[in-house]
Amino acid sequence: MRSTSLGISLGLLLTLTSAGAWAGFDEAAAAFAAGNYAQAQEQLQPLLANHDPRAQYSMGVLYENGFGVSKNPKEAAAWYLKSAEQGNSDAQFNLGAMHEHGVGIPVNFTEAARWYRPAAEVGDIDALSNLGVLYQNGQGVKPDKVLAMALYNVSVAYAGNAQTQAKQNRQALANQIPMAELQQSMALTEELLKPGNLKAGLRAYLQQGHSAGK
Predict the structure, then answer these.
(1) φ/ψ bin of 195: left (φ > 0), alpha (ψ from -120 to 50), beta (otherwise)
(2) Cβ–Cβ < 8 Å for 82, 76
(3) b/e string for 128-166 if b means 16 or more Cβ within 10 A?
(4) What percent of the chain has pLDDT over 70?
């Protein structure tokens, strides 16, 4: 599971959104950065009362890491679920990872794939990589090494020059599958990397019956 940090996560989000839309949330980020977790939680309360998915995700981060609260992976998973159900891709990834590795909740590969997928569809490089692992191993989904390779390729492409787990996964898988499947994965990769086509391309591939989830 990737390391989560409320300060980093909130900081990244704040650069993408106007200040007015984050009333109360920027204060929570500032309090977190100062190590004042109690104040951060206080600032999140009005947002939580309005079922704000950002605040719900933030509470998950606090409980997962034990920042200002007793470390409680089960509670973290509950907050991530609330946020993930509202479309927060960070929460979707973290929830998928918890299901995959049995952190705070029982191992459930089907649920892991379920939550990795929407995060992958919006380009989360870690979700793309981890979903690829599930398809490579046939965990919670029908095994499909062509799709696994394509997901690794897309993750690597989105990551740019960064050294990622997807790069290692891709190299290992490339040594295991026939050339014909490598060529198929390249064709699928090109389709998924077309501008704005990741979600639609992935869904189209799955709907064609190549690799339907269980």
Answers:
(1) beta
(2) no
(3) bbbbbbbbbeebbbeebbbbbbbbbbbbbebbeeeebbb
(4) 87
pLDDT tens by residue, 82-115? 999 999 999 999 999 999 999 999 999 999 999 9
State how far the Cα of 166 lies from the Cα of 25, in Å rounded to an integer. 32
> Token digits for 116?
């990795």
Note the pTM of the prediction, 2 decimals.
Answer: 0.86
The tokens 């040594």 sit on which residue? 175
Residues 6+ apart with CB under 8 A from 89: 118, 119, 122, 124, 127
φ/ψ of 124, rounded to 5, equals: -65, 115
Measured CA to CA in angstroms, residue 143 lies from 117, 147, 148 at distances of 15, 9, 9
CATH no. of 1-107: 1.25.40.10
| Helix, strand or coil, per DSSP, at residue 188 | helix
User: pLDDT tens digits, residue range 147-166?
Assistant: 999 999 999 999 998 999 99
Domain residue spans in the chain? 1-107
Residue 179 token pair: 């050339």
